[in-house]
Amino acid sequence: MKRTKVAFVYDFDETLSTTYMQDYFLIPELGMKPDDFWHEANAWSAKNGVDQVTGSMYYFKMMAERKGLCLTKENLASCGAFVVFFKGVEDWFTRINKYGRYLDLDIEHYIVSSGYEEIIEGCAIRPFFKEVYGCAFAYGEDGVPVWPARAVNYSGKVQYLSKINKGLGKYDDKAVNEYTPDDKRRIPYSRIIYFGDGSTDIPSMKMVKNHGGTAIAVYKPHSGAKNKAIKLLQDNRVNFALAADYREGKEIDCVIKTILNKIATERDLDILKQREDKKKQNTKCPI
User: What's the pTM value of the predicted model, to 2 decimals?
Assistant: First the structure.
């Protein structure tokens, strides 16, 4: 019997990593402090009527040109080695996959992020993900970014969730809007668990939760971010608000294992019900 598929979908910045992925190395390489860079980039976007995600990509490109920094795919990927993760993240995937196999569940991990795919490619945890959906640059013949190839904002995240749900390819943009019966979808929303922290995650969290899945708002331990996560819980946007500590025995670990137990139990009950339905169909009523 094939294992039941379950999808774990993660935002990246401040969900798995302790801050924005560009803050660890890329922005300091520009000779700037992260707070200053983001303030300037967002101000430029507002002034020019540009979406903040797309605007920040342009601003990185512009500042790199000014500073003589070469933003090749390889250089961006090298920034991934400097990313710092919350406690327990780096062995989380091996542990939770093992627990899933114990329950005959096949857990697939995905990233849906407004961060940069190129940086994620260089991270230590990249091999654990079936697919990464993030912002990415288009490159010229000299290997330098010329334009945003993809910019993932709050609405883009919902689109990629739909692709995971339907089992579509990363670049299959046409079929994502076509009707697909529930029984033809590869991973139903009821077996999707979404981890996020910020405003760009809210539409995805709400969609997963409203369709019977689980949405988890994570927050940096011992920080003011807890109040933001609790507000999402109070507003009925998420199922749980949990500290971003992925170590064994901590709250996230315990909650996720309980959810996986529930998914496995519901599957087993469905199998038993199907058997009983067959008995009713195969048994003739006495005259």
Answer: 0.94
